Amino acid sequence: MKALEATKAVSIFQESVLDWHKKEAPHPNPYPDGTLEFTLYQKNHIDTIQWHIEDEIRRPDIALEEVVALKRKIDKLNQDRTDMVEKLDDFVIEMFRSVTPKPDARLNSESPAWLLDRMSILELKIFHMEEQVNRKDSSATKEHIEKCQSKLTVLLDQREDLKQCLEELFDDYAKGIKRVKVYRQMKMYNDQNLNPSLYKNQK
Q: Which Pfam family, an example, fits this chain (predicted)?
C-alpha cells in the first residue's frame, strides 16, 4: 500500500468540512467504503459534527436536560472518533508491513493516525477562523478581525508544520529509522464492564 501524502489528507479533510457546511448537516461520504480516503473523510465528518455540538452545549439558554443529551452525543462521537483513528492506524501498519526496522529504530510517541487527528481538527479551526476574519456584521470590530487574522496566520503555519511532520514520520518508517508500533486507546468510560458508574448500577 502506497504511503499517504499529507497534502492529500488535508485536501480530504477540507472537502469534508466544506461538504458539511453547505447545509450544516451530514453529507454522504463520496469515497468507496473500506478505503483510506473513506476513513479520512469519515474521521473529519465526525470531528465536524462534534465541533458544532460542542458549540451548542455552551449556549447559556439551553435546558439542563438538553445539556445532558448533548453530552451523551459528545461521548458517542468521541468513541467514534477514536474508532476512526484506530482504523487509520491499521492502514498505516499495512503501508509499512514489508519494511524491516533497523536494530536501533526509534519509536514515535504519537502514531500517524493521532497526528492525522490533529490535522483534521486543525482544518476545522482554520475554516472557522476564516469565517471570523470575513465577518461583515456590526459586532465584528476591526480589533476582532485583526486578532482573528493573526490567529489564522498561526494556524496556517501550523498546517504546513504538521504536514511536514507526517511526511517525515512516513519517510522514517519507510527507511526503517523508526518502527511502527500502535497502542489502542482502550477507553473505559463507555464500557459497561470497565466503568464502575455503569456496572455497579446494572441489574
A: DUF4254
Distance (Å, rounded) from C-alpha 117 to C-alpha 48? Answer: 12
In a domain, 94, yes or no: yes
Count of other CB atoms within 10 angstroms of residue 151 = 15
Q: Using an 8 Å Cβ cutoff, are 48 and 80 in contact?
A: no
- Whether the predicted pLDDT of 194 surpasses 80: no
Mean per-residue pLDDT of the chain: 91
Q: Find the farthest-apart pair of alpha carbons in the chain and give their distance in angstroms, rounded.
A: 62
Is the pLDDT at 106 greater than 80? The verdict is yes
When divided into structural domains, the chain yields a total of 1
Q: Which of 39, 42, 79, 64 is nearest to 185 (CA)?
A: 79
Instruction: Give yes or no for residue 198 having a pLDDT over 60.
Output: no
Q: In angstroms, rounded to a whole number, what is the distance separating the alpha carbons of residues 184 and 116? A: 15
Whether 198 maps to a domain, the answer reads no
C-alpha grid cell for residue 55?
458549540
- Which residue segment(s) compose the domain that 111 sits in? 6-193
DSSP helix, strand, coil percent of the chain (3-state; round to 5) = 65, 0, 35
Query: Residue 179, exposed/middle/buried by CB under 10 A (0-12, 13-18, 19+)?
Result: middle
Residue 173 within any structural domain of the chain:
yes
Angle at 118 between CA 93 and CA 54, to 5 degrees: 125
Mean pLDDT of 140-156: 95
pLDDT value of position 186? 56
For residues 32 and 81, give the distance between their C-alpha atoms in angstroms, rounded to a whole number: 19
